[in-house]
Amino acid sequence: MKKSCKITVLPGDGIGPEIMESAIEVLKAISKKYGINFEFHEALIGGAAIDATGDPLPEETLKLAKESDAVLLAAVGGEKWDNLPTDRRPEKGLLKIRKELDLFANLRPGKAYTALLDASPLKENLIKGVDLLVIRELTGGIYFGEPRGIEERNGEKVGYNTMIYYEHEIKRIAKLAFDIARNRRKKVTSVDKANVLEVSAVWREIVTEVHAEYQDVELEHMYVDNCAMQLVRRPKDFDVIVTGNLFGDILSDEAGALTGSLGMLPSASIGERYALYEPVHGSAPDIAGQGIANPIAMILSAAMMLEITCKLPEAARDIENAIDKVLEEGYRTGDIWAPGTKKVSTKEMTKAIIKYII
């Protein structure tokens, strides 16, 4: 456990400031309970940064992030900035900070809450008990491979990208997956397309080599098309899924959608030195400033920070258990509300969660 944790706070745009306020309040409650000191430093990113400085990621923000133990980010973007040039839009700030901090792994939990089973598109017997984690390689693969481009060949337009992975990129993401699985249910599913792609054949070979150091963890290999199907057919069988950038982009959204509550899903992007925690949902500018946003994904992102960066897993469990209890009692923000439950504001939901932490 760390005695103190320096955190760069990036509220961003839309509902970002509201849900970030909720996360900070929860962390203050954790601070009192566990005696850990949180040092919060707020900075600009996204549209808010563009309005103030003309840059979606000011140098001051990046410098602060590199001097911190962790970065908490709420959301970026909105219609206000949609007509800006692509390289000056809010989302570029997010992509740049991930790259500059070399955040090579994205962790996306997919957990089915008992109180929200009705929200899932799957039958209750399939989704009940689902608790999986998708680990997506974030800085390599087809999104960054060269050569890439759009050109004309033989009189017609051609677009091309290169899917490429180096041995060290595969090794570090595989090691991370096995390390995390050791503290879960000790099973890793490595997803590839090794039957048709050479890059996947190398991926499978390297993951298998790394597994030799983790004989206490079960490893299974699965083709991406089969994995997409099995996530719907038998999601409870998955523990940790590790895969490349492209496949992970798709599968993490599918896994999240299975729970029926995308607005409640947290994520972590981590590297050798830095880590950034953010909710999966967007900035929801249509409800910004109304006090009705769901803060749970942001609060759960802070819980991931407590476990991974602050080395305080018991505090993370406190937050998760508090959220379980609040949902069981019927508290709901508008996005997850259903007849017979209690519709509450962002602040009311936050207070209810804190009540079970302290």
TrEMBL record:
Domain of life: Bacteria
Main location: cytoplasm
Segments forming a coiled coil: none
UniProt keyword annotation of Disulfide bond present: no
GO biological process annotation, one example: L-leucine biosynthetic process
Record bears the keyword Magnesium: yes
Annotated Isopropylmalate dehydrogenase-like domain residues: 6-353
EC category name: oxidoreductase
GO cellular component: cytosol
Cellular compartment(s): Cytoplasm
Self-association and partners: Homodimer.
Function: Catalyzes the oxidation of 3-carboxy-2-hydroxy-4-methylpentanoate (3-isopropylmalate) to 3-carboxy-4-methyl-2-oxopentanoate. The product decarboxylates to 4-methyl-2 oxopentanoate.
Name of protein: 3-isopropylmalate dehydrogenase
Organism this protein belongs to: Persephonella hydrogeniphila
Gene: leuB
